[in-house]
Amino acid sequence: MPELPDLEVLRKRVHILVGDTISSVDIFFPLTIRMFIEGTPQEILTGKKIDAISRRGKFLIFHTSQVNIAMNLMLTGRITVEHSSDHNPRNTVVRIVFESGNVLYFADYKKMGKIYVTTTLEEIPGFTELGMEPFSDDFTLSYFTALCTDTRPIKLMLTDQHLIAGIGNSYVDEILFDAKINPRKKAASLTEREIEMVYDSTVSVLCNGIFQIENRLKGEGNGKESGKEAHDFFNVHGKKGQPCPCCGNTLREISVSGRSTHVCPHCQEVTFP
C-alpha cells in the first residue's frame, strides 16, 4: 500500500497536470468512483481544469475551481501519467484524458481503490478523522509525547490514521527499527528518551523515504508509481531471513495484533516463545 513518502513523490511527479483540463473520463470499473455530486463523472469532470494537487494522509487530491477529485490508492492502486491513450496499463479501472494529450491511468488489480468526486472534502468517509501530518509544524515532540499515553503497542499507535496521517505497515517497521524499539512495546511504557527516539525516527525515516524513492525513479516518465525496486533501501521490512544491516543477526517476521511485522530480534530486543 502506498504510504506518505510514496504519495509525496507521486504528488510531485503528477504536478505536470496542474493547469491542464480534463477532456474525457473513461471508467472500466464503476465501483472505483464515488460521486458526492449529482451527475455522472463524465458530466461533472469534463472541462474541469486542475488548479492544484495536494496530499492529505493517504489521499491524493486534485483541486479544480468547482470540485475535488480525491484518490485513495488503498492496497494495490497505482497512478501513472503518460502522453498517450493508445493502450491501457494492465488492470486500469479509470482513465482520465487531458487536453494536452496527457493521460492519467488509475490501475488497481484488487479493485479496492477509490476516487471521490466532491465539492467538500469533509464528505469523504474518514477524512475529517485524519490525524496530524508528520511534516506539519504542529507535529512536535510535545504533541507526540501526548500521543504516547496510548496503551496499545507502539506499532498500532503509529499506524492509527486518527492520530498520525499517512504512515502504514512498511514505514512503521522502518521507524521502529531505526529507533531500536520493540514494536510490541506499549506506547505508554516508553521512556522519555525512547519517545524522543521514535519521534526523531518518524521524521527522518519518512524524509529519507522521499529522498530514496525520488532518486530511484529519476529518468522515468512523469507519474510512474514506485514498485518494489523503489523500496530496496528498506532495512527490515520485507527482508525476513536476511542479515540485519546493523548487527548481522537474522531478521524475523512477527505478528503484532495480527499485523505482519519485520524486526531485528537483537537490535529491538524482541523475544520469541
Could you explain the architecture of this structure?
The protein has 273 residues and is of the alpha+beta class. The chain has 2 domains: 4-123, N-terminal domain of MutM-like DNA repair proteins (Alpha-Beta Barrel), CATH 3.20.190; 141-263, Helicase, Ruva Protein, domain 3, CATH 1.10.8. Helix content is 23%, strand content 21%. The strands form 3 sheets. It has a 5-stranded mixed β-sheet, with helices on one face. The protein has a 4-stranded antiparallel β-sheet with strand order 1-7-8-6. Strands 10-11 form a two-stranded antiparallel ribbon. Strand 3 and strand 4 (59-63) form a beta hairpin. Helix 1 (4-13) packs parallel to helix 6 and helix 5 (169-179) crosses helix 6 (192-216). The radius of gyration is 20 Å and the shape is elongated. It starts with a helix and ends in a 10-residue tail after the last strand.
Please give the structural blueprint.
Elements: H1 4-13, E1 22-27, E2 33-35, H2 41-45, E3 52-56, E4 59-63, E5 68-72, E6 77-82, E7 92-98, E8 103-108, E9 114-118, H3 141-147, H4 154-158, H5 169-179, H6 192-216, E10 252-256, E11 259-263
Parallel strand pairs: 2-9
Antiparallel strand pairs: 1-7, 3-4, 4-5, 5-9, 6-8, 7-8, 10-11
Helix pairs in contact: 1-6, 5-6
CATH architecture annotation of the largest domain: Orthogonal Bundle
Strand order of the largest sheet: 2-9-5-4-3
Helix fraction, binned, reads 10-25%
The main pleated sheet reads as: 5 strands, mixed
Structural class: alpha+beta
Please report the total strand number as a whole number. Answer: 11
Shape summary: elongated
